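Can you please make up a whole protein chain along with its C-alpha cells because I've never seen that pairing?
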Amino acid sequence: MNEINNNMIKMRLKTLIVSFFVGSICLAQTNKTEVSEFNLSGPYEINLPFMVDSTNATKGKFETKMLLETPMPFSSLEKYQKWSGKVLPSLSKAYSEGFLTFDLDIDSFLKGTLKVKGITNYKVYVDKRVLTDDVLTLEPDRHQVIIRFVMAPDEKDSVKVSFESQSKMFVKADISPERRYSLSDCMDGLRVTNASLSPNGKYMIVYYRQVEHGGKSRSFAQVKEVSGKKILAEKDASADIQWMPRSGRYLYEETVGGNKSLYCADPNSGSVQLLVRNIPDGNITVSPTEDYLILSEVVKGPKENKDLYEVLTPDDRQPGWRDRVVLTKYDLKTQIYQRLTYGHTSTYLNDISADGKRLLLSISRPRITKRPFDLVTFYELNLETMKVDTLLSNQGFINNAIYSPDEKNLLISGSAEAFDGIGLKIDPGQTSSMVDGQLFIYNRLNKKVVPVTKDFDPSVEGSVYWSKMNDLIYFLGADRDYVRIFVMNPKIGKIGSLGAKEDVISGFDVQYASNELSSSPSIVYWGQSVSNSFRFYLYNVKSKKSFCLEDDSKEILKNVILGDCKDWNFVSEQGDTIYGRYYLPPHFDPNKKYPLIVNYYGGCSPTERTMESRYPQHLYAAQGYVVYIVQPSGATGFGQEFSARHVNGFGLLTPDEIIEGTKKFCAEHSFINSKKVGCIGASYGGYMTQYLMTVTDIFAAAISHAGISNQTSYWGEGYWGYSYSEISAANNYPWTNPDMFHKHSPLFKADKVHTPLLFLHGSADTNVPIGESIQMFTALKMLGRETAFVVVDGQDHHILDYNKRIKWQNTIFAWFAKWLKDEPDWWNSIYTPKVF
C-alpha cells in the first residue's frame, strides 16, 4: 500500500514538473516590450463644459473621461519633448489634456496586447485610429501609438505601458522620428503629373495629383511664375489649361449645366475673356497664329443590342472602338465652325504649320490579315484652298510626325522596320521589336528617309520636340533601366543626354517660343529615381543646368530610412552583360542571412529605376528582404539586337538568364539565404514566373500576377492578345507554328511545377483574361501541388482601387512571409484556413 502511494506521489511530482516546464516554455515565448520613453505634448489647459443640465439626453451624468470625446487634435503632437517620468504632468488649477506618443517597430506580422496601467482617463490611438480594446493586429511597419489623457487639477496618475505578444519576433518601442518605408508613402501625398512652359518662358502650368490617406484624391493645375514662388491661378484638372502659342495667355474650360465654355486669361494682369460659349466636346489645339482652334471631336459609332450583338472584328470588343475622331475648325474672329474631315476612318492632327495655313494629318487603316496590322497615311491639308496632298501612303511601322522648323522635313517616329527596314540593326534571322522606338527624318523635296537613331541604343519614347528656337530635337529615350532626355543635332546626327537629374524622366516640355521672344529655350521636366519620389525641374539650355523647383519626395519620405540600392551585373553564358540592381533592407547587417525576392518583367521593356511602381522594391526591403531586379534579354534600351530577342522567343533565353543571374547573385553575396528565394512578375512577367516554375526548383515561393499560362488562349481572348503577338510572335500564329505556342506555354508543363505558386488576377482584366490564371491554378490543384488563387474583384490589368491595392499588396507580403520567413500567421489572418 505504501509502495502504491509512493508511486502515486512520484507520478504527481512528474506531472507537476512537466506542467511547470510547459508553463515555463509558454512564459518564455511571451515577448514583452516595456515602453520607458515617450514624446510628451502638453499638458494643455481645457475647461469643463457649461452644465446646462445635470444629465445628458440618455440621463448620464458628466464624467471627466467625456472630455476625450472631442476630435483628436493631431497637430498638437508637432510640439513635443522627450519624457521618461512615471507620474503624468498636470496643471495645479485647471483640467488639462496631454499626449504621450511612441512607435512600435516590428519586422513581421503579429498579434499582441497593448497594456496601459495607472491612467484613469485616457484613450489610445494606433496609426491615428482609436483602439477599441487592448488587442492589436500589426503588419510589418512602424506604428504610431498615441495615449491621449485628461487630468483633473493636481491629479497624480502614474503610467506604465507595455506590449506583449506570443511571437518570437522582435518588437521595438522607439521615439525617434525615423521610420521605415510604407505602402502609404508609395500611394499617398502630392505629386507633379504634367507641366508646360509659356511661350516667353516666364510662366508655367503645373498639374498635380493629391491623394489623402484612405484614398480620397483630387487632380488640379496651377498657373505659376517659373520660379514657382507665386501661384497666379488654380483650376481643377478637368479645366484642361493650355498656353496660347504666341501671346502667352492661357486657355481653360468650364462646364456649367452640361455646356462647355472656353476662356482666355492673361497671367500678367489676371484679366479673363470668354472666347467660345457652348463649344463641342473634344481636344482643343490652338493655331500658332492664335486665330482659330482645331477640335478633335469624337463621333459615336453605331450601337448594338446589349442582349444579343454582333462583333465585327477582334477590336470591336473594346468599348469605344466604333467611335471615330473628326476634325473641326473654329474661327475665333467669325465664330464659325467648319468641318474639316469626314468619313468612317478617324483623322488625327499631328502638327500645324508655323503660318497656320496647313495641317499635318494622319489616318490609320487596319489590315488584320498581315503584319503590321495597321497602315498609316499622312496628308497635308491647305486650310485656304481645302486642297489635300498625300505625303506618305499606307506606311507600316510608323506612328506620327511633326514638321521641322523650316517645314522642309518631317520628323517621324516608328519602329526600325519602317520604310522597308532602313533603320534595322539586328542579326540575320531576327525580327525587330516593334516597341523599340526609332526616329526618321523624311525630306519632303527628294523623298529621302534618314534613320537618325539607327546606331542609337536607347529606345525613343513619348513626346518629341523639334525646337524652332535652336533647331535641335529633344526626346525621351529608354536607356537600359533609365529614361533620359536626349538632344539631337539633326544637321550632323549627333545625339547626347541632356543630363537631367532623375533616373526616370516621366515627361518634359520645351518652351515653344520663336527667336523673337527668347534666344535660348527653357525646359521643364519631372521624374523619380530608385530612392526618391517625384521632383520637378527647370533646365536652362544655355547654362546646361537644372534647378529643382519642387521636391515632392521631401514631404513623402520625411523621416523615412531606406536601405542602399546598388547596381549588379553579370556576364551570361552567352557572353552578354545582363544588367541589374539590388536593394538592401534599412540597417543592413552583412553578417545576417536575408531572404531574397527576384523581380523581373521579361517582356519587351526593362524594369525601370522608379521608386513608386507596381512592385515598389524599397517596400519589400523595408520588411527585411533583399530584392534583386534583373533585366534579361528582350528589353528595349539595350540596342535593337537585344530587344529583338523578345520576338518569337517565348521562354527561349530569358528564363535561363533569370535563373543564372539568381544563382550567381546568391553565390556572390554571402548575406543571402539561398534556400529562401522568391520570385514575382506581372503580365508577361507573370507568364515568366509560371514558365520558370516549370524549368527550375531554385525558388521557395513564386507569385504570378495577371500571368499568361496558355499562349494560344491569351492570343485569342485578350483585347490585345493578337496585337501583342504582332510584337512577340511576329509572323507566327497558332496554326502556322503550333509548337512555339504549345511548347512554351506553362500549362502544358504544369506537372513540372513543385514551387508554392500564388496566382493573383483582376476579375475584369481585359488584357490578360482571368482564365489564364484559372487554367494553371486548376492544373496545379489536380496535381496536388501547393498553390493559391486570389481574385481582385472588379479590377483590370492593374490594381488601381485604393483599398483593393492595399489588400492585394498585403496578400503578396503575406505569401512571401509564409514561405520565405516561415511565418504563416499573416496569410492565415487574411485567408482563414478552411476545410471542405
